[in-house]
Amino acid sequence: AAVYWLLQNNLWLFASGVIGIVTSYLFVLITQYYTEYKYRPVKSIAEASQTGPATTIIAGLAVGMECTAVPVLVISAALLASYYCGVQALAGMEGVSTGSAGLYGTAIATMGMLSTCAYILAMDTFGPITDNAGGIVEMSRQSTDIRKRTDRLDAVGNTTKALTKGYAIGSAALAAFLLFSAYLDEVTLLTGEPFHTVDIAKMEVFVGGLLGAMLVFLFSALAIRAVGRAAYYVINDVRAQFKEKPGIMKGTEEPDYGRCVDIVTTGALKEMVLPGLLAVGMPVAVGLLFKLFGTGAESVASLLMVGTIAGILMATFMNNGGGAWDNAKKYIELGHLGGKGSDTHKAAVVGDTVGDPLKDTAGPSLHVLIKLLATVTLVLAPLFI
User: Fold this and answer.
1) What distance, in Å, lies between the first and last C-alpha atoms of the chain?
2) Helices (DSSP H) in 334-362: which residue ranges?
3) Reduced to 3 DSSP states, what percent helix, strand and coil does the chain have, rounded to the nearest 5?
4) Who contacts 94 (Cβ-Cβ below 8 Å, separation ≥6)?
């Protein structure tokens, strides 16, 4: 309807929108395959748990790395196809270059992908609701039958949360490409000279790209370390409460939940200051430094381009790998391979603990980093020239 009323019923642009919707659907299917326990990847992690935590972690890492391949192929196909549709749609139109026409096609594909956001938001909300329902059932000491039902729902919720993160990566990739192109256009406008290529054969530009890839890993490390630190303080507080209130284990005294909540909240705010400054400060520092060599704008473009590519791959690895570890544990808890309380289950719990900071902290944060890098470089382009 939008294409019919607003874009003169152009079928090529309609095709671009359909490509975006299909891309969204494919991302959901791919993520489901890698994170739901009905399929090979999660089952392989559960089976590896039979020989201990080390093999659980090895299997999970392998699944996380493997799951980057198909999403990249889908994004690449979507970009190429929508670009071609844009070129065909606006070919020969006065004042429109081939590059601009192609970018318009990818923009329509991005809008097509974003048009499914209500469905994605519903799936994203489902996960935490079922997770918290399970927690309430456990804390209120309800029967094991009820807990089994909420465990099943929690496993479904883990999958839906992973699906939404996969979707976020895909939409971030399409949007980041547009913002990167917008940055090149902005520099062209400011300098009055064409700026449509980034030459990584230049030493400064290559270093800019290297710093972009490094930023993704350093940012992820800081986010994961923040979780580790907060967990350390929470565990120590829990142990202290067991000593202060011996009745907690007997069920005669209530623990002080507020203390743990305060530790986590304060830690979350404090630990995210450095990653936030890093995300905003790195492109500015690179741009101003290499401006001295006359390649400020181009070095920042290289940082943005390589940082986006590394961020997409790393986020996919973390989101899907973490979700797969979590559901491998859930699969065992449903009675497979020894069930809850077995040595296999204990190994799977270790894998889930490793996966949690990846899928719940560092992975989702990388979506923000990808978009933030593009926005900061675009807004501050005049500084780098």
Assistant:
1) 42
2) 343-357
3) 85, 0, 15
4) none
pLDDT-flagged residues of the chain (< 70): none
The pair of three-digit structure tokens given for residue 344, joined into one six-digit string: 């296999």
pLDDT at 317: 94
HSE toward the beta carbon, residue 65, CA cutoff 13 A = 6
Looking at residue 51, its pLDDT comes to 94
Question: From CA 381, how far away is CA 385, in angstroms rounded?
Answer: 7
What tokens does 380 get? 């501050």
pTM: 0.87
Dmax over CA atoms of the chain, in Å, equals 80
Vertex 76: Cα angle to 360 and 89 (nearest 5): 125
Both tokens assigned to 346: 């204990």
SS3 246: coil
Identity of the amino acid at 61:
L
Exposure string of 88-98, with b = 16+ CB inside 10 Å and e = fewer, is: bbbeeeeeeee
At 53-102, the pLDDT tens digits run: 999 999 999 999 999 999 999 999 999 999 999 999 887 788 788 888 88
- Own/partner contacts of 284-292, CB < 8 Å, gap of 24 or more, are 284/376, 284/380, 284/383, 286/208, 286/211, 287/377, 287/380, 287/383, 287/384, 288/383, 288/384, 290/204, 290/207, 290/208, 290/384, 291/383, 291/384, 291/385
Q: How far apart are CA 246 and CA 195, in angstroms?
A: 69
| Residue 238: how many other CB atoms lie within 10 Å | 14
The tokens describing 167, both together, are: 């979707």
pLDDT of residue 97: 81
Separation in Å, CA 70 to CA 20, 65, 81, 168, 313: 16, 11, 16, 15, 11
| b/e sequence 249-286, b meaning 16+ C-beta within 10 Å | eeeeeebeeeebeebeeebeeebeebbeeebeebbeeb
124 and 164 Cβ atoms separated by less than 8 Å: yes
Rg (CA), the chain: 24
Which one-letter amino acid corresponds to residue 104?
A: Y
Q: Could you give the CA distance from residue 337 to residue 212 in angstroms, rounded to a whole number?
A: 43
CA distance 268 to 64: 25
